Amino acid sequence: MAVNRYRLKSLVKAGHRGARLAERLLVRTDKLLGVILLGNNLVNAAAAALVTVIAFRLFGENEYALSLATVCVTFLILVFSEVSPKVMGAAYPERVAPVVSYVLSPLLKLMQPAVWFINLFVNALLRLLRLRPPDLASGSVMGVEELRTLLAESGHMLPKAHRGILLNLFDLEKITVDDVMRPRGQIEAIDLLSHPDELYQELATSHHARVLAYEGEVNNVVGIVKVRRVLAHCADGKVDMDTLREQLRQPYFIPSGTPLLTQLHAFQETHQTFGLVVDEYGDLLGLVTVDDILEEIVGEFAAASPLQSPLVIADEDGSWLVEGSSSIRELNRRLGLALPQEDARTLNGLILEHLEAMPEAGVSVMIAGYPMEVIQVQDRMVKTARIYPRRPEAGETRADL
Predict the structure, then answer these.
(1) Are 324 and 185 in contact (CB under 8 A)?
(2) Which listed residue, of 2, 31, 74, 284, carries a Cα 20 to 30 Å from 332's Cα?
(3) How many domains does the chain fold into?
(4) Handedness of CA 338, 339, 343, 346 (dihedral sign)
(5) Are the C-beta atoms of 49 and 55 separated by less than 8 Å?
(6) How far apart are the first and last CA of the chain?
(7) pLDDT tens by residue, the chain, 401 residues
(8) Same-domain pairing of 51 and 76
(9) Residue 332: Cβ-neighbour burial (10 angstroms; 0-12, 13-18, 19+)
(10) Angle made by CA atoms 228, 229, 233, in degrees to the nearest 5
(11) Domain containing 275 — which CATH number?
(12) Torsion of CA 156, 159, 160, 164, to 10 degrees
């Protein structure tokens, strides 16, 4: 009864005959328990009677002999019939179950009439008490939370890296593209209404293979530009606007709030590698790539460009100097913090949410036990802030942290 059903299934698939017999026995636990308890009680009763007879013949029919027989048979049953076998079965179920199945299977066939007769009364009593035995097949089906707990407690049976990847897969339905996207302020884009010389300079110094192209206002996206292909058609450091517009690629838009798992399937179906996240009004919110989704599963695996990497500088006092545009999820993962991420997506948004006012340099705020100081403000946004190590809150000890 203590055997791991999933490990038993793996043994069955490997062709283990004892495991196959054990799986058949576990399909009907009422019959299995019936034959085990029937044999167990028969042997215990026979042992008690036999020891009593032996004691009477050796010491006579008296209270001393009866007491001695009772103590002896109790000791023998507990040690050899109850405690020792059950401890061995609970400690090594995968070894014991296939072996004892060779004995229990023929016993079940031999004692089938007696087991059937006993189960008649058992089932009648269960119906009288309005109890229904659980279906073993349905009871062995595991949900997402059970699988998550199983992975979290797998210990040395599963490498830590593999366990982390599998646990991250379960979170893809809860995480949306808004949580991992690159904010609009960090997207490299060019304005097609700019002077050709300016466009050439922006393309020549670009850190990306593709850049966003818009006209006049960044929400007016007209396409995606492949930098190398456009530069190959440039002569004397000037951009041919007709050629540039011919090279524009149709942008791929993603609705805000799309789960990562859904978007990963969408990338597979459309053969896209990145998309632009827009809200219900069509305004551009950010950009998400396949790499961003894969990094949520396996962690960071590629060096980011200078324009993508949020600035995080560790100081000697244990604090961090961080860009306001940094993602809260990324900060929590990289620095081991526990900042709330239910509403705000970036550090700037989190500070503004708690200040409930326009930020000013030198202003400090306490968020989730972390003291934060606004260092630099630009365009009514927190450009950089300093995060200090968490301080214990009231009633909280260092051990709780």
Answers:
(1) no
(2) 284
(3) 3
(4) negative
(5) no
(6) 40
(7) 778 777 788 788 888 888 888 888 888 777 888 888 888 888 888 888 888 888 888 888 888 888 888 888 888 888 888 888 888 888 888 888 888 888 888 888 888 888 888 888 888 888 888 877 655 444 456 666 777 777 777 767 677 777 778 888 887 878 889 888 888 878 889 998 888 888 888 888 888 888 999 998 888 999 999 888 888 877 666 777 888 888 889 999 999 989 998 999 999 999 998 999 999 888 999 999 998 888 888 876 655 444 444 568 888 888 899 988 888 888 888 888 889 887 788 888 899 988 888 888 889 999 988 999 999 998 888 889 999 988 765 555 444 44
(8) yes
(9) middle
(10) 110
(11) 3.10.580.10
(12) -130
Answer whether residue 252 is part of any domain: yes
320, part of any domain: yes
Q: Determine the structural domain holding residue 97 and report its residue range.
A: 5-141
Phi, psi of 128 (to 5 degrees): -65, -35
- With 0.90 as the threshold, say if the pTM is over it: no
- The Cα–Cα gap between 188 and 190 comes to 7
